[in-house]
């Protein structure tokens, strides 16, 4: 009887859990459907909070969420429905905690979450093209996290832990700068036509896109200052990568400045505080290139050659030798020459060479030169 009672109790618990999971999945499905209808209204906050609450209270339900979002994107034929589904995903990424971000990123890496649309960009209108660019941006956005300071930060790549602290720091800065530039490039491609600037869903999506790009650009400025300040201490491979970053910034920052200017006065950007873009120029690249070339030179200082014009005169007074020095041009170096060396003859006897006397006149010296 006791065994039967325990089995009934266990079966009841399983049925309760199963029923609870079914209720949670149904709740997630309903929230997605209501939040991504075909009306031109932004995704309601209550659906975002409801989905996050349901996922946090059911282990494994985030996989169900990822599959439902994927299916809705791939089967969407209405541009507003597709745009609102992307916007819902973006809102969830911003509203979820670190574990939610990590789980969603893992599902994206494994292919459970696919941020792809059911049409191509070849025969699309401007809004459809914008939606496709937005989906590409979200693929990059999944690879970022919101840190404890509330700033966007790219996920640390695997492999940096095995390096030294100094190498780790430089490699991390270079990685972050590269990710910032990729993020900003994708942001600049998200530019809807003026007709769709009045769309409420488009306005909300662009508002989030721009605000996140501002955060990324501020981080880019901080990290590139760190890179430039430590440029003289970098090894050659790191210097090459740093120059590549600045060269890309030379091409990218003028475009980013124009992109922000084009949206400042539009309905999309009127309420936003746009940053002032620091434009890099070819002169910045040339200065860094020159500094790098000088540091790679084998000589770090100028080498000077001194020629001495001091001559030595020897007197021919037998074994005793006296010498006097003649200096020309006031140079300090003296050239000392020895008049004789011991030579060993074939018979084992030593003989001394005769000292050659050279007159110390200036004219003879100049003739020898």
Automatic annotation (TrEMBL):
<keyword id="KW-0968">Cytoplasmic vesicle</keyword>
<dbReference type="InterPro" id="IPR014712">
    <property type="entry name" value="ANTH_dom_sf"/>
</dbReference>
<dbReference type="InterPro" id="IPR013809">
    <property type="entry name" value="ENTH"/>
</dbReference>
<feature type="domain" description="ENTH">
    <location>
        <begin position="20"/>
        <end position="152"/>
    </location>
</feature>
<dbReference type="GO" id="GO:0030136">
    <property type="term" value="C:clathrin-coated vesicle"/>
</dbReference>
<dbReference type="GO" id="GO:0048268">
    <property type="term" value="P:clathrin coat assembly"/>
</dbReference>
<dbReference type="GO" id="GO:0072583">
    <property type="term" value="P:clathrin-dependent endocytosis"/>
</dbReference>
<keyword id="KW-0333">Golgi apparatus</keyword>
<dbReference type="GO" id="GO:0005794">
    <property type="term" value="C:Golgi apparatus"/>
</dbReference>
<dbReference type="InterPro" id="IPR011417">
    <property type="entry name" value="ANTH_dom"/>
</dbReference>
<dbReference type="GO" id="GO:0005545">
    <property type="term" value="F:1-phosphatidylinositol binding"/>
</dbReference>
<dbReference type="GO" id="GO:0000149">
    <property type="term" value="F:SNARE binding"/>
</dbReference>
<dbReference type="GO" id="GO:0005905">
    <property type="term" value="C:clathrin-coated pit"/>
</dbReference>
<dbReference type="GO" id="GO:0032050">
    <property type="term" value="F:clathrin heavy chain binding"/>
</dbReference>
<dbReference type="Pfam" id="PF07651">
    <property type="entry name" value="ANTH"/>
</dbReference>
<dbReference type="GO" id="GO:0006900">
    <property type="term" value="P:vesicle budding from membrane"/>
</dbReference>
<dbReference type="InterPro" id="IPR045192">
    <property type="entry name" value="AP180-like"/>
</dbReference>
<dbReference type="GO" id="GO:0005546">
    <property type="term" value="F:phosphatidylinositol-4,5-bisphosphate binding"/>
</dbReference>
<dbReference type="InterPro" id="IPR008942">
    <property type="entry name" value="ENTH_VHS"/>
</dbReference>
<protein>
    <submittedName>
        <fullName>Clathrin assembly protein At1g33340</fullName>
    </submittedName>
</protein>
């Amino acid at each position: 009887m006791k065994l039967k009672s325990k089995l009934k109790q266990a079966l009841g618990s399983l049925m309760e859990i199963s029923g609870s999971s079914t209720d949670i999945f149904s709740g997630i499905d309903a929230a997605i459907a209501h939040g991504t209808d075909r009306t031109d209204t932004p995704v309601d906050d209550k659906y975002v909070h409801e989905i996050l609450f349901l996922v946090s209270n059911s282990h494994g339900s985030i996989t169900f969420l990822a599959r439902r979002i994927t299916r809705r994107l791939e089967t969407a034929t209405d541009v507003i429905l597709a745009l609102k589904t992307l916007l819902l995903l973006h809102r969830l990424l911003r509203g979820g905690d670190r574990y939610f971000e990590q789980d969603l990123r893992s599902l994206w890496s494994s292919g459970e979450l696919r941020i792809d649309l059911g049409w191509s960009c070849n025969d699309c209108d401007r809004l459809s093209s914008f939606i496709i660019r937005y989906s590409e941006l979200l693929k990059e956005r999944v690879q970022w996290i919101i840190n404890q300071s509330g700033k966007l930060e790219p996920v640390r790549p695997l492999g940096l832990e095995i390096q030294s602290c100094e190498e780790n720091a430089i490699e991390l800065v270079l990685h972050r700068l590269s990710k910032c530039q990729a993020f900003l490039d994708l942001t600049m491609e998200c530019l809807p036509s003026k007709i769709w600037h009045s769309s409420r869903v488009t306005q909300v999506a662009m508002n989030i896109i721009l605000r996140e790009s501002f955060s990324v650009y501020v981080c880019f400025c901080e990290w590139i200052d760190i890179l430039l300040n430590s440029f003289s201490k970098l090894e050659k491979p790191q210097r090459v990568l740093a120059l590549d970053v600045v060269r890309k910034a030379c091409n990218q920052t003028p475009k980013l400045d124009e992109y922000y200017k084009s949206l400042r006065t539009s309905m999309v950007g009127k309420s936003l505080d746009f940053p002032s873009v620091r434009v890099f120029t070819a002169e910045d690249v040339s200065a860094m290139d020159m500094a790098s070339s000088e540091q790679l030179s084998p000589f770090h200082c100028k080498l000077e050659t001194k020629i001495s014009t001091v001559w030595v005169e020897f007197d021919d007074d037998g074994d005793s030798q006296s010498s006097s020095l003649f200096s020309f041009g006031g140079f300090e170096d003296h050239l000392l020459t020895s008049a004789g060396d011991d030579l060993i003859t074939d018979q084992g006897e030593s003989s001394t060479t005769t000292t050659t006397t050279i007159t110390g006149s200036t004219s003879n010296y100049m003739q020898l030169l």
